[in-house]
Amino acid sequence: MDLPVMPPVRPMLAKPAAQLPPGMSYEAKWDGFRAIVFRDGDEVELGSRTGKPLTRYFPELVEALRANLPERCVLDGEIVIVQGDRLDFETLLSRIHPAASRVRTLAETIPASLVAFDLLALDDHSLLNAPLAERRTALTGALRTARSPVHVAPATTDLDLAREWFDQFEGAGLDGVIAKRPDLPYRPGERVMVKVKHERTADCVVAGLRPHKSGPVVGSLLLGLYDDTGRLQHVGVCASFPMRQREALMAELAPLRMASARGHPWADWGEESAHAQNRMPGAPSRWTGGKDLSWVPLRPERVCEVAYDHMEGDRFRHTTQFRRWRPDRSPESCGYAQLEEPVSYDLDRVLGA
């Protein structure tokens, strides 16, 4: 492979904001695997956000990229899985499998798509120093004949339309809007874009904790919600605390610590078969590897309010943010019914925008 921009390349990143800033170019924020795509003739490489190769996990995309991309180019995009009329990140996770035979099967049964939103090089020319507006024109021209599963991400400079996208596109599984300066060059690894994500709140049961790696203070709180059968399901964690608050939380929760998990709703968390029926902390997966999955059980008597962006099935998609304790709420009142569901929106309309 001999391209004007060579792997590995760290993608340009975004920093969070509460509102969409004016005077920008706006795109939907896709919920998938960020990927830098390198093509030089028959050679195609997919690089992850950290620079590790993703190519072997998506053989069907390699063929599609050969068929739809210019002979020599480098582009930035997102690998996604479409299930029905929305994105499905949990299914996408299952595509990362060590067995080649399983990879081939998954490629046939749950094929991936690529949504391209930036062009870093074309033919013999690097576009890293070109302004975004110029790169966008080059991208749409280079992929003007591309067909599914390769798509060009919709973009607009209309702030009102971007606000509509923010409200509507979530129903198709997207999780916000990205804003970029039209004059912005491509700056690998730097947080020079802006992302605005949805934020909601939920009242959750605090049913356990994990100590911080630095010592005997709280690293994360394990959160639960009761389902329709009265079972407490593990739905995620909140983990972003200043060190002083981590110390205070450990002391505050000490009276709730249990000597063992006996009698706890997640008492059988260590049995792999138990995770098939209920969601509990410590579920083994290829992502955890040899990581210590142990946790400290707490009597499920405290309720806290957390902020979250969106759900992935029956759990929080990302780490939540602690907002406050809710002494006025009983743990048994914390169920899934309180969670807001976005209005469904057809993903085909997003890609056609």
UniProtKB/TrEMBL annotation:
It comes from the Bacteria. Residues 105-247 form the ATP-dependent DNA ligase family profile domain. InterPro entries: Adenylation_LigC-like, ATP-dep_DNA_ligase, DNA_ligase_ATP-dep_C, DNA_ligase_ATP-dep_cent, DNA_ligase_ATP-dep_CS, NA-bd_OB-fold, OBF_LigC-like. Gene3D superfamilies: DNA ligase/mRNA capping enzyme (3.30.470.30), Nucleic acid-binding proteins (2.40.50.140). The keyword Lipoprotein does not apply. Keywords: Ligase. It holds the Pfam family DNA_ligase_A_M. The keyword tRNA processing does not apply. Signal peptide: none annotated. One of its GO terms (biological process) is DNA recombination. Its EC number is 6.5.1.1. It catalyses: ATP + (deoxyribonucleotide)n-3'-hydroxyl + 5'-phospho-(deoxyribonucleotide)m = (deoxyribonucleotide)n+m + AMP + diphosphate. GO terms for molecular function: ATP binding; DNA ligase (ATP) activity. Belongs to the ATP-dependent DNA ligase family. This is DNA ligase (ATP). It comes from Streptomyces buecherae.
